Amino acid sequence: MDTIIEERIDRVEIALERFINEMREFKDEMLDFKDEMSSYKYVVDRQIEESERDRRAFQREMLTFKEIVERDRKRMNKQWGELANKLGTLVEDIVAPSIPGVVKERFNIEIDDLMVRRKKKVEGFPEKEWDVIAISPSLVFLNYTKSTLKPQDVDKFIEDIKIFKGYFPEYKNRGIIGILASLYIDESVIRYAEKNGLLVLGIGEEIMEILNSQEFEPVRF
Fold it and tell me: Are residues 79 and 94 in the same domain?
């Protein structure tokens, strides 16, 4: 009987020792897992910190970008305003001074009188302003200037030419050469102006130069 009890005690002790060893192994595994989790948490925390730094850096960059865009927008608005003001004096500063030279080169005619922004009102007609009127002994050179020319501007100018002598009857015996001028003129508008017998001037090496084709001969209205 004692032998049986002793055997049972031995088995219990062996089982208990095995259980203790397993618990020790489990504890070691848990410690290793804890270490791994600590390392993982450290990595995650670092990534979160880096992400937060990147986010703050991106916000700063975006603020800087917005400031640059706003500054450039204000600068461009200022430049456009200055350009708009400059276009208001395009006739006086660029076109009008160029017309005598263009007339001399193209027609070998001297200009006797050059009127810029000439306003006139006569009975039966509303007051009207003419951009440039260049007078020679035989011809009147009438100019219409816009920053950008469109086909409808060509049509309007032709109507102005038709009523010119109603405002200036003293030139009724002189032919009129119509001259359009602009900073930018599309090729289609140049062709349309030529079709209607008008000279076209644009920015060139000599400030304003004739843009018509070489064989073009302007109409004398």
Answer: no
